[in-house]
Amino acid sequence: MSASYLSAMHLLIADPDPTIRLRLKRAAGERGGAFTFAEAAAWTDLHPLCAAQTPDIAIVAEALPGFAPGEIATLRRQFSALSILVVGGEEPERLRSVLKEGASGYLWRGDAVDMLAQALETVRNGGIYIPPLLGLRAGRERLMTSAGPVPAGFFREDAAEHLTPRQRVVLAMIRDRWSNNDIADALGISIGTVKIHITAVFKALGVRNRTQAMVAAERMELPDPGDRPVS
After folding, report:
1. Helix (DSSP H) and strand (DSSP E) numbers for the chain
2. Per-residue pLDDT tens for 53-67?
3. Cys-Cys link to 150, which of 47, 59, 113, 133 (CB 3.0-4.6 A)?
4. Residue 213 in contact with residue 174, Cβ under 8 Å?
5. H or E stretch including 12?
6. Which of 140-144, 146-150, 212-216 is modeled with the greatest confidence?
7. What is the mean pLDDT of residues 107-120?
8. Angstrom distance (rounded) from CA 16 to CA 124
9. Which InterPro entries does UniProt cross-reference here (predicted)?
10. Residue 118 belongs to a domain with what CATH number?
11. Is there a domain that residue 87 lies in?
12. Are residues 122 and 198 in the same domain?
């Protein structure tokens, strides 16, 4: 366990349900550590609490009264040192949206209590927490990729600095769901070279597969790859 996780943290827990707030407070301390807490039951409570108490991490439920698209970005602009974990439903569009606004992670509401300690450790160590991508298809099937079920994980916020211009283009193509053949045709390179670029991108991001890379890409300014080749 990292020393940074064990150091004192001030957490702001924002959820309309006091029982959920209590459960999240208990979950935060399950790996040890010295925590202090502030609580909010509505979005309008967040700004004065952040100004008065300067929390390290805010755990914010999308069910919070007053929560709306764009609010995470506004909060981050006003309190740039604040890391924000959003708790919401299992819609990949919402996950991508809040990460793009500047959130440091996203927790499925049903898993939030169980996964909070891991998410806090990830964020405290400079990462972005990505939950297990479960239940995203009709029938609550497990989302699969060629690498199998997507595990919980994170990517580094400074990852883009470690990508070459070509790798940034490849990542943009992955984000837009281009196949390896599409990438090879557009860039005039072999499939083998495409795989080398993708492996390097995954390593730089700290992700394991395309789905995690797609989520990571939503937080980055990437070039427009243009139109996908017509096969």
Report:
1. 10, 9
2. 999 999 999 999 999
3. 133
4. yes
5. strand 9-14
6. 212-216
7. 87
8. 25
9. CheY-like_superfamily (IPR011006), EvgA-like (IPR051015), Sig_transdc_resp-reg_C-effctor (IPR016032), Tscrpt_reg_LuxR_C (IPR000792)
10. 3.40.50.2300
11. yes
12. no
148: alpha, beta or left? (left if phi > 0; alpha if psi -120 to 50) = left
Same domain, 38 and 104: yes
Count structural domains, the chain. Answer: 2
Tokens of 111: 């898993």
Q: Which domain holds residue 8?
A: 3-131
DSSP 8-class letter at 2: -
What does the pLDDT read at residue 7? 64
Dihedral angle sign, alpha carbons of residues 130, 131, 133, 138:
negative
* Contact between residue 169 and residue 187 where contact means Cβ atoms under 8 Å apart: yes
Q: How far apart are alpha carbons 50 and 65 in whole angstroms?
A: 17
Distance CA 21, CA 17 (A): 6
Compute the distance between CA of residue 79 and CA of residue 77 in angstroms, rounded to an integer.
6
- Token digits for 89? 């439903």
What CATH number is associated with residue 178? 1.10.10.10
Cα–Cα distance for residue pair 42/16, rounded to 1 Å: 6
Residue 172 token pair:
């943009």
Q: Which residues contact 141 (CB under 8 A, 6 or more apart)?
A: 135
Q: Are residues 46 and 118 in the same domain?
A: yes
- 138-141: Cβ within 8 A, 24+ apart: none
Q: What is the DSSP letter of 125?
A: T
Rounded Cα distance, 115 and 36, in Å: 19
- Cα separation of 142 and 56, whole Å? 33
Given a contact cutoff of 8 angstroms between Cβ atoms, the answer to whether 155 and 128 are in contact is yes
The structure's pTM equals: 0.64
Is 98 found in the same domain as 184? Answer: no
